[in-house]
Amino acid sequence: MSTETDVLVLGGAGVDTIVHVPELPLPYADSYMIRPGINSRAGQSGDFVALGLSALGLRTHHLDMLGDDPEGDLVRALHRDHGIPLTAVPGPAGTKRAVNLVGPDGRRLSLYDDTRSQEADRFPEETVRALAAAARHAHVVITHPCAHALPLLRESGLTVSTDLHNWDGANPYHEPFALAADVVFLSTTALVDHERTMRDIAARGRARVVVATAGADGAHLLTAGKLTHIPAVPPPAPVVDSNGAGDAFASGFLLGWLNGEDPVRCARYGAVAGAYACTVPATRADAIGRTELLARAAELAGGLV
């Protein structure tokens, strides 16, 4: 079957307000003078995955709910400027928003406006089916409408990936995503035993690959029952913001995975993309291109891409 899209990204469109703070955690004070200022820009998890995939040359389509508001206009402009097709379903609660506090070392604390996401949110079934029929793969962000879309994606025959972010391994909200995906990404941040959680996902769900990212400590890859440590990649420039690094990792990994490459090589691609993302200031959206990623991966592998 011919396809128009390599990856259909569902969910995760929104706007972040970036606030640079002198340290994290931020001590209580009546006020702070902030430099380089406070900025709002489009780009949440789904936006960054779509941006990363598109920059790597994969045909990408993004589906999410957006409000008829200035934040929604920023999201639409981001996709238009980067040539990424966007299907925007009207969102009655408005466009998703968050405030990111970014420390001098690039670490961040994200504050999400929970009123912008409702459990009753749904994508129109016919829209999901039509977009899935034109795609090779779906990447699903862990939002309410995406949870309801999972059965439709499975019925379509698509492979599915998802990112559980800082799941603690116990919150039941994440389980439908963890158990329905062929490729599962998550962070070790809130996990007591990352290997146990990874193996549990693989044993109870459909996952052929589980990847737990660990920041400067690299990542852990579970495939065919074997756990492999993937070293972190030195960033090509100073680290300024870790926001979007996990999304970039997923994009780089999927580039290799959709090309049928070895999972270790896919994870190396992810590590290169994630390291690059940490050098991008929070006030703009940017992603590594295919040529640079492959060159850097070949360099790290001693010439073996």
Quick summary:
By secondary structure, the protein is an alpha/beta fold.
Characterization of this structure:
This protein is α/β, with parallel strands linked by helices. The protein contains nine helices and 13 strands. The protein has helices at 45-55, 70-82, 125-133, 144-156, 175-180, 194-204, 245-258, 263-277, 290-300; strands at 5-10, 14-20, 38-42, 60-66, 86-90, 96-102, 108-112, 135-140, 159-163, 183-187, 209-213, 219-223, 226-230. Strands 5-4-1-8-9-10-11-12-13 form a nine-stranded mixed beta sheet, with helices on both faces. A hairpin with a 5-residue loop joins strand 6 and strand 7 (108-112). Helix 3 (125-133) packs across helix 4 (144-156), helix 7 (245-258) runs antiparallel to helix 8 (263-277) and helix 8 (263-277) crosses helix 9. The longest helix has 15 residues, at 263-277. The two termini are 30 Å apart. The relative contact order is 0.15. The model has no long low-confidence stretch (mean pLDDT 93).
**Quick one: how many beta strands?**
13
Terminal CA distance: 30 Å
The number of distinct helices, counting runs of at least 4 residues, comes to: 9
Q: What composes the largest sheet?
A: 9 strands, mixed
Computed Rg: 18 Å
Helical fraction: 25-40%
Task: Report the principal-axis shape.
Answer: globular
| Structural class assignment | alpha/beta
* SSE succession: EEEHEHEEEHEHEHEHEEEHHH
Mean pLDDT: 93
> How are the strands of the largest sheet arranged?
5-4-1-8-9-10-11-12-13
Low-pLDDT residue spans: none
Strand content bin? 15-25%
